[in-house]
Amino acid sequence: MTERMGVLSSDGRCLQPSPLAARAMLRPAARRLAAVGIGFAGGWAVLYGALMPFGLGLTLGLAEDCFAPCAAGAALGLLLHGLGALSLRSLCQLCALGAAVAARWLLPQKFVPAALAGCGTLTGMALCFALGSSGADLLLYSAADALLAAGIGFGLRKFAPERPGMGTLLVGAAVAAALGSVRWGWFSPGVLACAAAELALCCRAQKFAALSGSAVLGAALCAADPALAPAAAGLGCATAAAAVLAPGRRVETLAAYAGGCVSGVLCVQPPGNAFGLLFSACGGMAVVCLLPGGWLAPAADTPQSGENAPAPARSAAASTRLEAVAQSLSSLAETVNAVYEGLPRRREGFRWVIDNVHDTLCFNCGRRETCWKQEYTATMAGMEALRPLLEQNGSVETAQLPGELSRCIHPAALCAAAGRSFALYRSRKEARIHSEAMRTALTEQYSAVAEALGVLSEQLGRPGDPEPYKSSRVAEFFTGLGAPPQECAVTLDDLGRTHAAVTLPRTRFTPQELAALAGEVGHICRRTLEVPQVLSCKGMTTLLFSERPALRAVFGAASAAARGEVSGDAVQQFCSPTAAQMILCDGMGTGRPAAVDGNLAAELTARLLKAGFTAELAARLVNVALALKSEDESGATLDLISVDLYTGTARLFKAGAAPGFLVHGGRVRAVGEATLPMGVLGGVNGQSRVVHLTAGDYAVLVSDGLLVDGAGWVAKQVELSAAAGDAPEKLAETLVETARIRAQKTGRPDDITAAVLRLEKSG
Predict the structure, then answer these.
(1) Torsion over CA of 337, 338, 341 and 343, rounded to 10 degrees?
(2) Segment (H or E) for 193
C-alpha cells in the first residue's frame, strides 16, 4: 500500500496534503494532548486519602516529548482537586514538578538527576515546613510520595507505556485511581472504565494482559476509595471467568464477565449496596458492546519486540524459508536438465566438413555435376581419405590429395576449404563440449547447494527443547557484564546435551576471556562447557557454547615431497563444536600443479564442513571447482573422517583415496576401495562408511605414495605403534620415514603423507 505525500507547486508549496502528511503533523500533538490528560489524572489521584505520587512519577518517567505536557496536566490536577485551595502539600508537589521539569530540560535522557531534583525538592520543602508549625505528618507523607514517585518514574523509564507491559499498567493505575475518587451517587466512572478495559482485553483473547490489568486496576480503585473494594473483587472475578472460560469469543466473553461480576460483588457486598457498583460495571460492558467489531478482533499475545520473539518461532520460520529456497534451487537444476534433454541434438560429424566444402567451393564450380553426381562415390571416398590427414595436421597440402580428388581443377582452393571447414568443425565441437560441461557444473552446484540448504533447514527445524530459566540467567549474567545480549537461548538437543547461543553487539574476546565465560555460563547451566565458538557477521558477535564432549581428539601429521620441497598432498585437521575432522587430499601428479589441486580441495572441503555441509555435499562442490579451475585436467583425491566426540561415531568418506587404517580394541583393519578422484567426472564416485570408535583408538589416513610397497607393512606398523601408545605425531613421522626409504629402493618416488587421529577421554 502506498500513500502520496502531496502535490507540490513550482515554488515548493504543498497544494494538496496527503493523509500521511496530515497524520505526521497530528501525531505529536495527539501524544502531547494524551500526556496532558495522563498528567491531569496523576495530579488528581490520591491514594489512601493522603498520598499523591502519580503526578511527579509520570513527569519523571514519560518520554522526552511528553514530560512537560504531563507536568502541566499534573499541576492542573493538583490545583483543581483542592478546588483552587493551595495547601502545603500541593505547594510542595508543584515545586517538585517544576524542579523535575527543569532537570529534564537541562540533562535530557538522564533519570537520576531528574529524580534527585524532583524528589529532593519535595522532601526538602516538606522538611522546611515541618520544622515550622506543620508537624511531622507533612514530612512523612512527602517522603512517601517521593519514594513512590521515584519508583513509578523508574518503571516508566524501563518499560515505556507505548508497549504492553509494566509501563501501561502504571499509567492505567494512575487513571483508575483518579477516576476511582469520583462518585456521582450510585455511578462510579472508575468502575465503568476498568470494566470496559478488562472486558475489551478478554474479547481480544489477551487473557494474561486482562488478568494482570484486573489486579493492578483493582488495587488502584481500592487505594483511591476503600468503598470500591467490593467492585474490585467483582471485576477480578469477572475477568478471571471471562479469560478462562471464553477468551476471544465476544458473546460468550460478555456472558462470562457479567456472571463473574455479579457473583463477585454479591459475595462481598449485601444486595442492597451492590446495585450501584453493578450499575457502573454494566455501563462498562455497554461501552464494549458499542465498540466496532474490528476493534475487538482476537489477537494472540505477541512479544514486546521483534528482537525478543521466541527462538523456536524464528527457527521454524527460518527453516521454512530455507526449505523453500532449497526446493527452488533443486527445481531450477531439474528444469535446466529437462530443457537440455528436450532440445534437438546436433550430431555433427566429419560429414559436416564435407558438406561445408561442397557449399563453399564446389557449389559454383563448372564440374559440380560431374564430381557430385556422376562420380559421387569416388568423390566421397576421396573426401573420407582427407579425414586422417586433417585430424593429424589440421590442414592438407596439394601433394597429399588422394587419387580420387586429383581431377579437381582447383586443388589449392580445395585444400584451403578443407582446412577451414575442419577447423570450424573442431571449434564448434569444443564449444559444444565446453557448454555441456558448464551446464553440468551449474546444475551440480544448484543441486548440491539445495541439498545443503535442506540439511540446514532440518537442523533449524529441530532447535531443541528450550530452557527459559537458564536462558534468562545467562542473559542476566551478560547484562551484568555491561553487554546485554540481543538474543540468548539455552537448549537441550535430542541426546540431552546443553547448548547455549548468545548474540551480542560486535565484541572482541581474548582466549582467557572466552575460557572464563565458558566457566561462568557452565556454572549457571550446571554443565561443563567447552570454550565457545565465536561467529562475527554484520556488526554482531555470536558465542556458541556446547557441553564438553566425552572424547577429545589428538592430531598428528607428517609429509615428504617426491621432488624438491613442494608436496601435492594437503592435510586439514580441526575440531568443530561437536566433531573432530581430518582431511587428506592428494593432487594428481607431483610438484606445484598437484599442490595447487590438493590444497584447493582440502581448503574448500574444510570450509564447507565448518559451514555445516556434509562430506558428500562438500565433495560435489569441490568436484565442480576442480573441473572448472583451468583448461588443464585437474583432480584430487578426498579422504575424510569425521568423529562425533560425544558418541564416538566416525563417518568416513573416500573419493579416489588410498585405503586408510583404523585401530579399534588393539586390532587394525584397512578401510576403503579404489575409486576415481574428484575433478575427473561430472559427478563424484565416493564411498561412505560409518564405524564406532572409543578412547584409545586410532584413525590413519595415507596418500598412495605411502603404499608404494604395499599395505601390509603399514598395517603392522600402525598396530605396533598403537599397542605402544605412540603419540599421533610420532606414528605419522615413523610411517612417512619408512615409506620414503622403501620408495627410494623401488625407484618410484611419489609424495608421501600420513595423517593420524587418536581419541582420548576428555578432561
Answers:
(1) -110
(2) helix 189-203
